[in-house]
Amino acid sequence: MIEFRNVTKRFPDGTVAVDSFDLVIPSRRTTVFVGSSGCGKTTLLRMINRMVEPTSGTVEIDGEDVAAKQGVALRRSIGYVMQNGGLMPHFTVAENIATVPRLNGRTRRAARARALELMDVVGLDTAMADRYPSQLSGGQQQRVGVARGLAADPNILLMDEPFGAVDPIVRAELQRELIRLQRDLDKTVVFVTHDVDEAFLLGDQVAILAEGARRLQVGSPSEITENPADDFVAAFIGADRGKRALRVKQTPRGRVLVDAEGRTQGVLVEGEG
Predict the structure, then answer these.
(1) Helix (H, G, I), strand (E, B), or coil: what is residue 55?
(2) First to last CA, the chain
(3) Which SMART domains match (predicted)?
(4) What is the pLDDT of residues 189-203, one digit of tens each?
């Protein structure tokens, strides 16, 4: 479990990125921070692995303040995936994935074996192991980034807008892969996005944030959709438009669900009994 306790981050220029933030992130679930650019969501993420230090308050992992942990060791124990993969261009795919295992003392052979294993896990052909990032598509680079984040078998995986730079088709594929990985690997995932549809697709818990990481609403996608905290949240999630504003339409073949633009989104299946 990760817990933020009255956390504030004030930068030297006076900017308050996070102001008195509290949140419990449950273990083995995906929590998504969603909000507009500059609302503090990436700052929150980076305070978990001490890439950013809070000005006040504490961030705890399983009841222990992360400030009491050695920074480098903490970061090596937590998976981190960023936009564009953040791959080292002069390392091969296998070498990129094997970076943390090598830093943690595993032999070159053992680290490469782990890299090949993880390529299978994230859906990459192991024949690509000796290619360089420049020889991969954007989606393939992101898969390498996810594999690298998993290489040390961390309990926690931090993901900072990891799919934001790929096209919509690849993004949808990567989202499905993350759902599969979470089901199979059972990690505590903290995910940052500005896309509310992505947040609702991936998150077990979604935190909608405003400037200064002010909590507008926290809950499951169903809870937020069914009971938005206020008009702003309702507008932000699109409760009255698109595919979240559905109505029933009768057709010659039965009832279907239609969105606010009149597009059929699915067939209404009557329950049994």
Answers:
(1) coil
(2) 41
(3) AAA
(4) 999 999 999 999 999
